[in-house]
Amino acid sequence: MAKYSAAVDQGTTSTRFMIFDHTGKVVAVDQKEHEQIYPKPGWVEHNPMEIWERTQEVIDGALKKSGVNPKDIAAVGVTNQRETTVVWERATGKPVYNAIVWQDTRTDAICNELAKDGGQDRFRLKVGLPLATYFSGPKIKWILDNIPGVRAKAEKGEVLFGNIDTWVIWNLTGGPNGGVHVTDVSNASRTMLMNLDTLDWDPDMLKVMGIPKAMLPRVRASAEVYGKAVGSLNGIPVAGDLGDQQAALFGQTCFSQGEAKNTYGTGCFMLLNTGTKPVQSKNGLLTTLGYKINDEPAVYCLEGSIAITGALVQWLRDNLKFFDFSKHIEDYAKAVPDSGGIYIVPAFSGLFAPYWKSSARGAIVGLTRFITKNHIARAALEATAYQTREVLDAMNKDSGVNLTALKVDGGMVFNDTLMQFQSDILGVPVIRPTVAETTALGAAYAAGLAVGFWAKVEDLRANWGKDHEWHPMMDSAQREKLYAGWKKAVIRTFDWVE
């Protein structure tokens, strides 16, 4: 009788492997960072081989630390940084180029060219997404157009494309020796190539982008058995696949229409379950797939994506050397009662939801001689909360339902100063669950459901528990005054890049 379900959580800055028991409690975790490669301003890359090495290391690390026998693991799921694009040789498993990361803006010219005929929302009805550098389709096109010989190989099916989920699953199930080439609906819906209604690659989109179908993975459900692992997890069913934000929605057990969660990581991502029919956004949100369990109908979401939140803290740590460890930002922020009137708009990769302006760039506004390092640290945290408020406002307008509380997860939710300010600026309670690493948990849940380790989603709801709740303590006049200042600051960043 299996005792555990497990997940590979391949994120933007690190990879971890986590093992959970039947109650959703963490049994083991191992985590390793990988290199962030910045060849030019606006370009962001990862080495796919390093990511696969780290994946193998953390699997071994977690098994070793916990003493768990792999035979006791019912299934393994995969969750991943979405939109990050890898193209590799089928025969050798060798990438033809570094992975182009979701934050990368090099496809700006491709997106602008495609937007000439029909604007930024030209394909929105079909794929749920605006034309933006964020998504995989333009990144694939860039690789095909710029790396010699790759297009000819793609036509023959000699090179394969995948977001990171596909890359990890292919390697996990054997790589060049019989690896399965699949993705799930949640990841496929981030490529600009999947039709929201058919849940398959759209022939018109492939034609527009100039992408051969032969290189694309098969689109499958988020919870079903894709194949069996080799290596340290030999013989274990690989049975779950969810983009990281959808995995967090799953881990937060937002299985009912109208339930929402916000994940605070490198970026910030709020998802609202809209049920089994896609809802088109009129307010700058994405229409995306939430998940699909085996043969059941797919569940759709509205998503508000914010590019830079935790990454702003890393920038203060690594580029400006403000502190040695990210958690220390809270000590500096708490040393002052407010931001001293400054705002930081972290449009390092342009602005994502609800603006979708890739020509915006970051700014610190309102500086005076009074401002110290402490005010800057506080303003960096507040930027995350303001951006979340913008997305929540858009979500309320699109869905017609006012959110009454926000479930939160991810690395930044242990920052009490941020969570209190978040509740203050939203005017609703903010709730942190007992397991805040809900991304890995969601992937483990999907895999476990696929093989019957959990019988139904209601079993997962029973596992969810509340760890802490913050309530608004700011009066509404102050809230609106601060938020109006933020809006003014955001407008200052528009159209910086000519």
Can you offer a commentary on this structure?
- This protein is an alpha/beta fold.
- 33% of the residues lie in helices and 22% in strands.
- It is built from 16 helices and 21 strands.
- It has helices at residues 48-66, 108-115, 124-127, 136-146, 150-155, 164-172, 185-188, 203-209, 244-251, 310-318, 329-334, 373-399, 416-426, 438-450, 457-463, 476-491, and strands at 4-10, 14-21, 26-33, 45-46, 73-80, 85-89, 99-100, 159-163, 182-184, 218-220, 223-228, 237-243, 260-264, 268-275, 286-291, 299-306, 343-345, 363-365, 406-409, 430-433, 466-470.
- It has a seven-stranded mixed β-sheet. It has a six-stranded mixed β-sheet with strand order 3-2-1-5-12-11, with helices on both faces. The chain has a two-stranded antiparallel ribbon with strand order 4-7.
- The longest helix has 27 residues, at 373-399.
- The N and C termini lie far apart (61 Å).
- The model has no long low-confidence stretch (mean pLDDT 94).
Keywords:
498 residues, alpha/beta, 7-stranded mixed β-sheet, 16 helices, 21 strands, 33% helix, 22% strand, globular
Ranges where pLDDT stays below 50 over 5 or more residues in a row are: none
Derived structural class: alpha/beta
- Radius of gyration, in Å, reads 21 Å
Biggest sheet character:
7 strands, mixed
Mean pLDDT: 94
- The rough form would be described as globular
How many β-strand runs?
Answer: 21
Strand order of the largest sheet: 15-16-14-13-19-20-21
Strand content: 15-25%
Task: Determine the number of helices (DSSP H or I, runs of at least 4 residues).
Answer: 16
Residue share in helix = 25-40%
Quote the distance from N terminus to C terminus: 61 Å
